[in-house]
Amino acid sequence: MLRAPGAGLLAGALVSALAPATAREVRAIKPPNTGVPVATLAYVDKGVERETATGRGWQPLTEGESVRTGDRIRTAPDGLARLKYPWMSLTAGPSTVVHIPAGFVLSTVLDEGRAELLAQGREIIKVRTAEAEIRGEGRIIVRREQERTMVMAMALDGTFRVEASGMAVVLQAGEGTVIKDGQHPEPPAKLPEAPTALQPGQDPVYVARGEPVRLSWSPAGEAHHIQLLPLYSDEVLIEKDVSGPPQALTFAWLGTYRWRVSSRDERGIESRPSAPGYICVVEK
Questions:
Q1: CB 100 within 8 A of CB 110
Q2: Closest C-alpha to 128, from 158, 91, 153
Q3: Among positive and negative, which fits the CA dihedral 151, 183, 70, 127?
Q4: Taking the model in full, what pTM does it have?
Q5: I need a surface site. Which of 42, 86, 228, 281 has the fewest CB within 10 A?
Q6: CATH number of this structure's domain 196-282, picked from the four choices 2.60.40.350, 2.60.40.10, 3.30.70.120, 1.20.1250.20
C-alpha cells in the first residue's frame, strides 16, 4: 500500500508531540500525598509546616487540612498546632516536631518538643519517641529534648503505661517519669507542686486589644510553662516555655480568657497546671 509522502514523519511528529502532554497529564493527576488521612489540623497559632513522604520539602499547612500517614509536622518557635484524630487530640507546642509513620500499625511519634495528648472513654493514646512507647487513657504531657536525649512523661489524668528498653512503669494521675537514652524508665514520681498566687487571678484584669498583660505567680522558679485558653474550653490557644515571673503576654482577640502556669523541676518534669487567672481584652 502506498502512503502519502511524509506520512511517517507526520506520525512520528504526532507521537512526539503527544508524549510530553501525556507525561504532563500523569504528573498533574498524581496526588501530592498518597498517605491515608488520619487526623485534621483543627487549630493553628503562628506557623505550622508539613513535610510529606513525596519529598517536596517543608510546606505551609493551614487549619482544616488533613494530616496523613507519612506526614511530618513542625511548629514555629512561637507556634502551636492541634491535631484531631478520631480517637484523641494532640496539641503540639512551640518548636515541636511529630510524625505519623506510614504502615499498618498506626501511631504518632514525637521527634522533639512538647505534646499534650487527650483521650477519654474507651479511646486510647499511643505515642512513641525514639526511646519509649506510651499507651493509656486520659491526659498526658510528653516532652522530648534532643540535646539531652531525654523523654519526660507526665500524667495529668488517667493511667498510662510507659515502656522503654524492655521495661515498663505505670503512671497514675499526678505522676511522671524520665527516660534517658538506652535506659529503663525511672520509677513513677509525684509531679511538682503547681504555682499559686497568680496575678491576674480570680478577679479579671482588663487590657486593651494588642496591649501586653503582665503575668506573675509564686514560687518564682527557673522554668515554667504558660498557657492561654478560652473561658469555657480546655483547648489551648497559646502556650510557651518561660523562665521565672514576671512575664508578658500579648494577643489581639476580644473577650475573656483564662491563663494558667506550670512549674518545671531541675529534671524538666512539669507540674499540673495552676488554678486559672482571668484576662478580659477590650477595644482601646
A1: no
A2: 153
A3: negative
A4: 0.85
A5: 86
A6: 2.60.40.10
Q: Which three cell numbers stand for residue 268?
A: 524538666
Domain extents in the chain: 37-190, 196-282
Digit-coded pLDDT (tens) for 192-203: 999 999 999 999
DSSP secondary structure letters along the chain:
----TTHHHHHHHHHHHHHHHHHHHHHHHS-S--SPEEEEEEEEES-EEEE-TT---EEE--TT-EEETT-EEEE-TT-EEEEE-SS-EEEE-TT-EEE--SSSS--EEEEEEEEEEEE-TT--EEEE-SS-EEEEEEEEEEEEETTTTEEEEEEEEEEEEEEETTEEEEEETTEEEEEETTSPPPPPEEPPPPPEEEES-SSPEEEETT--EEEEEES--S-EEEEEEETT----SEEEEE-SSPEEE-----EEEEEEEEEB-TT-PBPPPPPPEEEEEE--
The CATH class, in words, for 37-190 is: mainly beta
Kindly tell me if the per-residue pLDDT of 262 is higher than 70: yes
The maximal CA–CA distance of the chain, rounded, in angstroms, is 100
- Among left, alpha and beta (phi > 0; psi -120 to 50; other), residue 62 is beta
In one letter, which amino acid is 277?
G
| CB contact at 8 A, 109 and 103 | no
Q: Which residues, at least 6 apart from 116, have a Cβ–Cβ distance to it below 8 Å?
A: 90, 91, 93, 139, 140, 141, 142, 236
User: Which amino acid is present at 172?
Assistant: Q
